Amino acid sequence: MFDTILIANRGEIACRVIRTARRMGIRTVAVHSDADAKAMHVQMADEAVCIGPAPVGESYLRGDVILEVAKRTGAQAIHPGYGFLSENAGFAAACAAAGIVFIGPPIDAIRVMGSKAESKRLMANADVPLVPGYHGQAQDFATLSAEAARIGFPVLVKASAGGGGKGMRVVRAAEELADAVAGAQREAKAAFGDDSLLLEKYLARPRHVEIQVFCDTHGNGVYLFERDCSVQRRHQKVIEEAPAPNLPDDLRRRMGEAAVAAAKAVKYVGAGTVEFLYEDGGFYFIEMNTRLQVEHPVTEKITGLDLVEWQLRVAAGAELPLRQEQLTRKGHAFEARLYAEDPQREFLPAIGTLVRLRPPAENDHVRVDTGVREGDAVTMFYDPMIAKLIVWDEDRDAALRRLRVALAAYEVVGVTTNISFLGAIAAHPAFRAVEIDTGFIERHRADLLPPPAPVGDAALAVAALSVLLRRRAEAQAALRARSDRHSPWLLANGWRLNEENHYDLSLIDGETARAVTLHFRTDGYDVVVDGGAALSAVGVTYEDGALTVSLGGRRVRATVVQQGLDLTVLIDGAVSRLKLDDPSARAAEQEGGSGRLTAPMPGTVVRVLVEVGQSVEAGTPLMLLEAMKMEHTIKAPAAGVISAVNFAAGDQVSEGVDLLVLDIPEA
């Protein structure tokens, strides 16, 4: 076994590998960029070395620098995690040349399976079922157009290299193909440095079922059952579960055997995942991921195994710890990926500081894999994943209940997150009934992403109580510092001469001012929202933003985080955002023309689609912005005339800068 390993990654997967290595008595070396100098994985490792500036091309993708660090620190092996260099055959070859073990598959397996086209040609020879498509090397548009017509629309345009939904487009008609091919090529080139594409028949309602495989250097290969990853958006997984529900056992076995056959066809070693589409009893090979998957914890929960430990043992030359007949599974597990992103804005990544980060308590049923802590920043440079929430129980229904409870308990303030969206999926009747496929989110979009509603009375009430109690505590502290501790002024109970004691507050909900009045009572308060009926608020406790109150006879537990004038209220997983009414601050916010179109996040301008003086209609695409290796379209909010274009293709832009100005005529 190795004495020291280097982890060529960051975030939660680096932390995940460090935990297992520490348990096995293996010393760990972390690498980090300038931006990650104080990151969680850096603090956890036995040794850490800076490898360059924040951009990944100057740090985490610098295989030469990482190898030099490995030699200098005495690392005998490198664990690449996932992403970055994990499926880079050139880096694996460089490790071999340097005499350092790459904790992953052989170089040829990475190369073959890293090309969707080449892997499918190989799988066809190994009798692994394939979706009808085109996997050829000719990439001219005439060939792609002819092949798409042969396959029949709708077709799926996919990047031959990489994954994660990048460089992927659904094309439903021939006239859409040219734009889809051009966009997919740009995205694939930016993400993987390879713009080659393949085409596949687009299946209407398939499930995405993948098999976890493991092979060693002694010719042994097993499958560790399957995962269902059908719930996706933009072809990126959102919630995964194991085992895949409602699959016949004979089908599970055949898929597992096909996956092992696929792995053995490339003389595979280590952990890998063979992905299939499943529809109407048939299954079809999509690709093989030659690394540990993000969703591997659900397999660990149902098998009781540590897959990172298996990786380390196999890389050190050991045989697989178990044979196929020795592998068993128990119960059901879910994984939900918590991201800093805004579901109401087409899932745009969000950046900011994690002002409050309180996960649910971990136990035998709940696991949290994360690489960030409260106070850390989510930046534009890296994937905006905050954590993976994994739950387990004896059956699917019980595990799903645990998922809903754990999501409701997760507190994140400082960045917009997808927690409410995940909770909506977990609570949806169709998801509970296993009516799932890769189109689940789009089909139920109206249920999962309802339009923003006014903040409810309960959230307004607890926000007002929090403001009052916080101000009372601050006033009492100030008075206590300079007054007698028996002073009546320390009561701060709202007493007024010749008038009922009460407290008035105005909170801004979106653009609407909401009035809240707290009437003081001997045992609590009466709360009046917008002049409505009074709600009794008794048994109030407040500490560190956590507020508990019996409101109108209902026990409410909430967290209220105040940042300047901004208030974030969390109740049972629901997030409400309010602002203390400050006329001067409100006036400052309302400055500027409505026709100024700003960058929703930092990124690069890919294309400018309009010019100054051009008339456009509402919804017209104006500019393509690439951020987090995904393209986002800036569209006209109304009809008007372009009066300014402030950036050109290739320009870097910061969040909030004016990209274009659209003159909108008065109605």
Description:
The protein has 667 residues and is α+β, with helices and mostly antiparallel strands. The protein folds into six domains: 4-103, Rossmann fold (3-Layer(aba) Sandwich), CATH 3.40.50; 105-131 and 206-330, ATP-grasp fold, B domain (D-amino Acid Aminotransferase, Chain A, domain 1, 2-Layer Sandwich); 132-201, ATP-grasp fold, A domain (Dna Ligase, domain 1); 337-451, D-amino Acid Aminotransferase, Chain A, domain 1; 457-585, Glycoprotein, Type 4 Pilin; 593-663, OB fold (Dihydrolipoamide Acetyltransferase, E2P). The chain is 28% helix and 33% strand. The protein is built from 18 helices and 39 strands. An eight-stranded antiparallel β-sheet has the order 14-13-10-11-12-15-22-20. β30 (566-571) and β31 (574-580) form a beta hairpin. α4 (89-97) runs antiparallel to α5 (107-114). The chain is globular.
